[in-house]
């Protein structure tokens, strides 16, 4: 681990200590307890699905799988970490790495599930519903005060240099997986084997991915969150869409690439190139003071131009946007905030915590903020051939080249996604 990353992490913890002290003082709290959360077992079973630590807990310690543990934050005092680490011969007990940041905490290793003592006017946040009613009462604290959570969400929206370094490293590891996935596709592998190649090259097990990888061949590339992996390779290879990520010290990469297969029409390969160019143009538009909604609308204008340029729409680009044609070809938003969660917090709120919902005509948009330095966002324009969205247009007078759409439908669709940090002067693309 580079010494510079250790130094950045200690600076990050010091930044959180100052910010939390100010927030607690401003809101009249003497202490704050953050619960890590815990996994729930499957119904009538004795094992649980993969678990992810509560984001505000992870913000401090960078560990994505800590359960039944607590952080106690008090202004002007070292944070206390109550780490649940029972003596257990069935499982490897939770442990902390031998890294400098650990010395910034007062660490208590707990063999039993612990209820930490709170001081003065106290608050507690996290998945408190997982705790028993008696445990909640024993905390003697305000549970999940919304005004505190909103302020802490806003704090997480702006990444420290340490956090940006982690997201950059998560991207580097994820890129290795994407390269392996592309090679597996060239080698005529099926979806499951492409997934396994991705996991091996990105050095992670499936239970550790930040979200379920989307590996879609052919028409499956047109299912936005395709959730299966066919065991066998298809007889014809039109396309591959890989939307897959990686964690590094809790922080997520979220990258998508689409490839034209040997059996795809030539125009599909041209469209993939055009969508790469569109992604690059949108990334270049990122800067402080830019409205993300405006960037999303720019995506639709240029998508209309792509449809016209490739003879898929025989009207004007402006007409394609106005008539909702581009929304039928791309129903999702341009991107979202990225951090400890793939769809990170505070994207649909104003800086004061009040709601900032998606526009009526773009209800799937997950980020409506004006960009500011320190934000990390995804840029992911898409172009899909989804029958249920295009069907209403077939019965209209819209000048769509249906013969070409039908030719491209077996290819499913295209999505190209990068992770970008907003800087003081513009942007830095974390997905080279």
UniProtKB/TrEMBL annotation:
<feature type="domain" description="Peptidase M24">
    <location>
        <begin position="165"/>
        <end position="424"/>
    </location>
</feature>
<keyword id="KW-0482">Metalloprotease</keyword>
<feature type="binding site">
    <location>
        <position position="380"/>
    </location>
    <ligand>
        <name>Mn(2+) 1</name>
    </ligand>
</feature>
<feature type="binding site">
    <location>
        <position position="336"/>
    </location>
    <ligand>
        <name>Mn(2+) 1</name>
    </ligand>
</feature>
<dbReference type="GO" id="GO:0005829">
    <property type="term" value="C:cytosol"/>
</dbReference>
<comment type="similarity">
    <text>Belongs to the peptidase M24B family. Bacterial-type prolidase subfamily.</text>
</comment>
<dbReference type="Pfam" id="PF21216">
    <property type="entry name" value="PepQ_N"/>
</dbReference>
<feature type="binding site">
    <location>
        <position position="254"/>
    </location>
    <ligand>
        <name>Mn(2+) 2</name>
    </ligand>
</feature>
<comment type="function">
    <text>Splits dipeptides with a prolyl residue in the C-terminal position.</text>
</comment>
<dbReference type="InterPro" id="IPR029149">
    <property type="entry name" value="Creatin/AminoP/Spt16_N"/>
</dbReference>
<dbReference type="GO" id="GO:0008235">
    <property type="term" value="F:metalloexopeptidase activity"/>
</dbReference>
<dbReference type="InterPro" id="IPR052433">
    <property type="entry name" value="X-Pro_dipept-like"/>
</dbReference>
<dbReference type="GO" id="GO:0006508">
    <property type="term" value="P:proteolysis"/>
</dbReference>
<keyword id="KW-0464">Manganese</keyword>
<keyword id="KW-0645">Protease</keyword>
<feature type="domain" description="Xaa-Pro dipeptidase N-terminal">
    <location>
        <begin position="10"/>
        <end position="152"/>
    </location>
</feature>
<keyword id="KW-0224">Dipeptidase</keyword>
<dbReference type="InterPro" id="IPR000994">
    <property type="entry name" value="Pept_M24"/>
</dbReference>
<dbReference type="InterPro" id="IPR036005">
    <property type="entry name" value="Creatinase/aminopeptidase-like"/>
</dbReference>
<feature type="binding site">
    <location>
        <position position="417"/>
    </location>
    <ligand>
        <name>Mn(2+) 2</name>
    </ligand>
</feature>
<feature type="binding site">
    <location>
        <position position="417"/>
    </location>
    <ligand>
        <name>Mn(2+) 1</name>
    </ligand>
</feature>
<protein>
    <recommendedName>
        <fullName>Xaa-Pro dipeptidase</fullName>
        <ecNumber>3.4.13.9</ecNumber>
    </recommendedName>
</protein>
<dbReference type="InterPro" id="IPR022846">
    <property type="entry name" value="X_Pro_dipept"/>
</dbReference>
<dbReference type="InterPro" id="IPR048819">
    <property type="entry name" value="PepQ_N"/>
</dbReference>
<keyword id="KW-0479">Metal-binding</keyword>
<dbReference type="Pfam" id="PF00557">
    <property type="entry name" value="Peptidase_M24"/>
</dbReference>
<feature type="binding site">
    <location>
        <position position="254"/>
    </location>
    <ligand>
        <name>Mn(2+) 1</name>
    </ligand>
</feature>
<dbReference type="GO" id="GO:0102009">
    <property type="term" value="F:proline dipeptidase activity"/>
</dbReference>
<feature type="binding site">
    <location>
        <position position="243"/>
    </location>
    <ligand>
        <name>Mn(2+) 2</name>
    </ligand>
</feature>
<dbReference type="GO" id="GO:0004177">
    <property type="term" value="F:aminopeptidase activity"/>
</dbReference>
<keyword id="KW-0378">Hydrolase</keyword>
<dbReference type="GO" id="GO:0016795">
    <property type="term" value="F:phosphoric triester hydrolase activity"/>
</dbReference>
<dbReference type="InterPro" id="IPR001131">
    <property type="entry name" value="Peptidase_M24B_aminopep-P_CS"/>
</dbReference>
<dbReference type="GO" id="GO:0046872">
    <property type="term" value="F:metal ion binding"/>
</dbReference>
